Amino acid sequence: NVFNDTAPLIILALGQMVVILTRCIDLSVAANLALTGMGTAMINVAMPALPIPVILAIAIGLGAIMGAVNGLLVWKLDIPPIVVTLGTMTIFRGIIFVISNGKWVNSHEMSPAFTGFPRAEILGLPVMSWTAITTVVIFAVMMARTPLGRSIFAVGGNPHAAVYTGINVGKTQFLAFVISGALAGLTGYLWVARYAVAYVDIAGGFELEVVAACV
After folding, report:
1. Which residues contact 67 (CB under 8 A, 6 or more apart)?
2. What pTM value is reported for the model?
3. How far apart are CA 113 and CA 130, in angstroms?
4. What is the pLDDT of residues 11-57, one digit of tens each?
5. Cβ atoms of residues 14 and 183 within 8 Å
6. Count of Cβ atoms closer than 10 Å to residue 126 Cβ
């Protein structure tokens, strides 16, 4: 139970790790989670028969788009990441209020399949826990064995030297924000489905716990 409760923090901290390694920070992860969670909950209410894999794809896609917005502002406009993500954090929360009119989406409005997926057990562990474990394994391989993983370390270690080795520093930081956003989107669906409620202030202040966990 403790591990399952910590699963969202594990997933988000891994996304934050990639961003922090590139000398940036993403303070909008909790707002991204909340907006994606509200979005998927409202889609489920409107189309209860929509398959879970489609909802997962929508959640990851929405999160990645929000991460890409952060990444583009940092990369192309050269705005400090803390300023960008503080701004988008407020914007994302505002969008939730606009699309929901400040109303909650409660458990009785959600389909059994929507709320049941994160709780379904495989080998005695809920899907939510397995998602965290899978994410850890994927990131362990990505950071140690792929060009992207090595370039993330190189950009954070010495951005000037990274340029001379042919690494695009801005693009690497952009990809880090996209990865962080995609994981926040995935967690948004899992969070809302597990607790069976969606509202404006989901995971309020959670971004600080994510940064602390990452550090």
Report:
1. 26, 32, 177, 178, 179, 180, 181, 182, 184
2. 0.94
3. 18
4. 999 999 999 999 999 999 999 999 999 999 999 999 999 999 999 99
5. yes
6. 20
